Amino acid sequence: MMVQGIARLRKNTRRTLVALALAGALAGCQADEMITAGPKHLREISASIKQKMPGLDMSMTSPIMLRIFKEESTLEVWKQTRSGRFALLETFEICKWSGELGPKIKEGDRQAPEGFYEITPALMNPNSSYHLAFNLGYPNKFDRSHNRTGTHLMVHGACSSRGCYAMTDQQVQDIYALARESFKGGQRSFQVQAFPFRMTAENLAKHRKSEHYEFWRMLKSGYDHFEVTKQPPKIDVCEKRYVFDAVPLVEGVPFRATAKCPEYDVPDAIEVAVAKKQRTDDQKIIEIAEAEERSERRRAQIAAIFGNSETDKAGESTQTATGEAAPAAGTSQPVAVAATSAAPAAAAATAPAATATAAAAPAATADAATQQTAFAPTEQKSSGGFFSRLFSGGGSQETEAADGTPDPDAPVPPAKP
């Protein structure tokens, strides 16, 4: 009995050790899995992005700023360097955005917002149904001052959009992680600048006839402030418009979205640099617009010339067909009439009549010459080359008459006795 008890004890001990080893192995697998993946909102930034930071003189926790361009379907992540200025860290292709170029106006229009938005930690959503997300904070003060409505306008994953900017899950994973690290470093909010397109002179000229043009020029001012300083501009709203890097002259006077702007100043260095850039861009916009208008006029002239050429060809074909038969009828009929009427006139002629007939002979000869000129085909004069016709605007009726082109509507001269 004792031997059997010892055998059972050894067997149970062996089973216990196997179970413990298996449990340890499972726990180890789960721990490895947690280290590799972990909660999605706590996952690390991709190694490829992290590797760029030392070369750009950035720390992992330095502040960030985002720029979105609809037409180019691009989202840029800018990050502060140790110099205090921002540099471009990563460019992501937006998977989907909904609506058209232009701001969001009202709930349900499925427009993705355009403007300047501040993202605080409270707007980050680690439990999003679209992998990860952050709310843009639409409508902001500017939007509300124009009575614009809408809710839950996000940058999120899942590549599906109804008024949002949708990224792939991996993209939003990195964007979310970069924002999380910047908050860890002490950044209270990061700025998102959402534009219809890159605010270049070429793009402004291209879209100058849009109903949103003045709104876009206002956005361009904020774009220019960042371009010349490489720092996110301070954003305020007054008189229902954005103002950038504005410092009230009286300390403590607030900017109110729908109220008159308080007296303010912009730091001289920024103001001068922005003004210079805007003058250059405005001049380029004018030049591009004028060049396009000249091109449109030239195309209209060319279309008119080719249109007239087709009409002229059709007229010439008709005229040629008519002109081949007209000379035969025009020369034989007057001669026959003249011969028929000349016989009785000669029989009843008196001396005075003969004298009158003799006096009229030169006139009759001249009329015959006129008839021959009017009906005989004449050599067409060249109207010049393509560019002569392009800039002359086509010949006049007087020119055509001078060139010897017969007028098909002119009356046939009567035969002379």
From TrEMBL:
<dbReference type="Pfam" id="PF03734">
    <property type="entry name" value="YkuD"/>
</dbReference>
<dbReference type="GO" id="GO:0071555">
    <property type="term" value="P:cell wall organization"/>
</dbReference>
<protein>
    <submittedName>
        <fullName>Murein L,D-transpeptidase YafK</fullName>
    </submittedName>
</protein>
<keyword id="KW-0573">Peptidoglycan synthesis</keyword>
<keyword id="KW-0961">Cell wall biogenesis/degradation</keyword>
<feature type="domain" description="L,D-TPase catalytic">
    <location>
        <begin position="64"/>
        <end position="195"/>
    </location>
</feature>
<keyword id="KW-0808">Transferase</keyword>
<dbReference type="GO" id="GO:0009252">
    <property type="term" value="P:peptidoglycan biosynthetic process"/>
</dbReference>
<dbReference type="GO" id="GO:0008360">
    <property type="term" value="P:regulation of cell shape"/>
</dbReference>
<feature type="signal peptide">
    <location>
        <begin position="1"/>
        <end position="31"/>
    </location>
</feature>
<feature type="compositionally biased region" description="Low complexity">
    <location>
        <begin position="318"/>
        <end position="328"/>
    </location>
</feature>
<feature type="compositionally biased region" description="Low complexity">
    <location>
        <begin position="359"/>
        <end position="391"/>
    </location>
</feature>
<keyword id="KW-0133">Cell shape</keyword>
<keyword id="KW-0732">Signal</keyword>
<dbReference type="GO" id="GO:0016740">
    <property type="term" value="F:transferase activity"/>
</dbReference>
<feature type="region of interest" description="Disordered">
    <location>
        <begin position="305"/>
        <end position="328"/>
    </location>
</feature>
<feature type="region of interest" description="Disordered">
    <location>
        <begin position="359"/>
        <end position="417"/>
    </location>
</feature>
<feature type="active site" description="Proton donor/acceptor">
    <location>
        <position position="156"/>
    </location>
</feature>
<dbReference type="InterPro" id="IPR038063">
    <property type="entry name" value="Transpep_catalytic_dom"/>
</dbReference>
<dbReference type="GO" id="GO:0004180">
    <property type="term" value="F:carboxypeptidase activity"/>
</dbReference>
<dbReference type="InterPro" id="IPR005490">
    <property type="entry name" value="LD_TPept_cat_dom"/>
</dbReference>
<comment type="similarity">
    <text>Belongs to the YkuD family.</text>
</comment>
<feature type="compositionally biased region" description="Pro residues">
    <location>
        <begin position="408"/>
        <end position="417"/>
    </location>
</feature>
<feature type="active site" description="Nucleophile">
    <location>
        <position position="164"/>
    </location>
</feature>
<comment type="pathway">
    <text>Cell wall biogenesis; peptidoglycan biosynthesis.</text>
</comment>
